[in-house]
């Protein structure tokens, strides 16, 4: 496991979110700050088998997606998950603060979920079956992407 990426997933991203004003406009994309936080929460729910989407990647293409996952490449700006609608979902929480609190709880649930069995796998709709280490890499890419989207990180900075 990449402990630096795991640390950023566990706490570094959350630390950045605590400096995110609710009215911040994204540098790209359609989501507002709260929609982004709730979107990330949903992504963590997928990883702990609480939210399900069908697998959309043909089996023969999964190795190519795994290769991207294992690389140092970042998601491109405006990358959209193929299982999500064109327009962002409406917000669920009362405000950004509540959404951040819910995300924090969900990230903790992710680490708890895999703590007993890091080889346990859950299915991502694009990347297929992933274990804890693979989810860490994907969560890292995902949260860094959204941190850049809202100006919390420089647009192309590589994290430790």
Folded structure, characterized:
The mean pLDDT is 93. The chain has a single domain, classed as Four Helix Bundle (Hemerythrin (Met), subunit A) (Up-down Bundle), CATH 1.20.120. It has 160 residues and is mostly helical. It is built from five helices and two strands. Strands 1-2 form a two-stranded antiparallel ribbon. The longest helix is centred in the middle third of the chain and has 20 residues, at 96-115. The chain is globular.
**Overall mean pLDDT score?**
93
Distance between the termini: 14 Å
Helix content: 40-55%
Strand runs, count: 2
Supply the number of helical segments.
5
In the sheet with the most strands, the strands line up as 1-2
Which class do the helix and strand fractions yield?
mainly alpha
User: Over the alpha carbons, how many angstroms does the gyration radius reach?
Assistant: 15 Å
CATH architecture level-2 label: Up-down Bundle
Q: In percent terms, what proportion of residues is strand?
A: under 5%
Q: Strand-and-helix sequence, N→C?
A: HHHHEEH
CATH topology: Four Helix Bundle (Hemerythrin (Met), subunit A)
Low-confidence stretches: none
Give the CA-based shape.
globular
Largest sheet: 2 strands, antiparallel
Name given to the CATH homologous superfamily: dinb family like domain
